[in-house]
């Protein structure tokens, strides 16, 4: 019985030490993630407000950490008659993003998110002739990144999947798209209803940064392990004292 009791104590001690160390490591990892997230937020804020730079070539590989939300510009022409409406929810309500292919001077294609229109509204065609579009570089949203899957055959889109949208129009496009900034004025727009003109500049740049809360949670649990160990040790000593006095 004493041998079994000793083994039980060692097992409990081992589990307690393992739990304590694991929780401390998880807390440290969350603090490291917080440092990384704060650095990312600072870099993105710098990109969003920087002067526009030429968008990457269509055949270049872009990455989320290094390129997303860079302020870029492209020159060329919109390709009319190939709009794609992607379901969206914005501060203006429920509706669609209007994704339009744009042919650059080097003949490469990049998809431009011209902006938002409400449900039941037909989007105005893009401006014709040579254009310069300034906006934020965004990463493609693969099918499956939202609750509902895209249905290219029925032209129903729930994510801005660049590859699939380009393929639907028999085009080869850059792996990213550009959220256009708001720049059109009443004088430059075609004479159509204002509601038909996509509202650009609605990109929401947000980053969830709850790493400090998670770190404190893990450290709190580690502290509870220490408290539990103290209680067990105290009760063990009381039990020994009671057994010796009886």
From TrEMBL:
Pfam families: SURF1
Cited PROSITE patterns: SURF1
Transmembrane segments: 12-31, 212-233
Keyword field: Cell membrane, Membrane, Transmembrane, Transmembrane helix
Localization in the cell: Cell membrane; Membrane
Family, similarity comment: Belongs to the SURF1 family.
Name listed for the protein in its UniProt record: SURF1-like protein
UniProt source species: Zhongshania arctica
């Amino acid at each position: 019985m004493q041998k079994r009791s000793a083994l039980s104590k060692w097992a409990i001690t081992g589990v307690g030490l393992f739990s304590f160390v694991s929780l401390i490591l998880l807390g440290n990892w969350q603090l490291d993630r917080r440092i990384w997230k704060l650095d990312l937020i600072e870099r993105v804020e710098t990109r969003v407000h920087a002067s526009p730079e030429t968008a990457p070539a269509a055949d270049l590989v872009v990455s989320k950490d290094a390129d997303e939300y860079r302020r870029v510009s492209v020159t060329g022409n919109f390709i009319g008659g190939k709009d794609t409406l992607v379901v969206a929810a914005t501060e203006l309500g429920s509706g669609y993003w209007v994704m339009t292919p744009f042919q650059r001077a080097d003949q490469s294609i990049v998809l431009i998110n011209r902006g938002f229109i409400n449900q039941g509204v037909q989007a105005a065609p893009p401006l014709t002739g040579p254009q310069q579009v300034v906006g934020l570089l965004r990463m493609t949203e693969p099918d499956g990144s939202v609750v509902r899957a895209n249905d290219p055959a029925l032209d129903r889109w729930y994510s801005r999947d660049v590859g699939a949208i380009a393929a639907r129009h028999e085009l080869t496009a850059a792996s990213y798209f550009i959220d256009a900034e708001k720049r059109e004025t009443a004088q430059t727009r075609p004479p159509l209803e204002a509601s038909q003109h996509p509202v650009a500049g609605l990109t929401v740049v947000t980053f969830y940064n709850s790493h400090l809360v998670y770190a404190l949670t893990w450290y709190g649990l580690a502290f509870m392990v220490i408290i539990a160990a103290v209680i067990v040790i105290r009760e063990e000593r009381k039990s020994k004292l009671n057994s010796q006095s009886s």
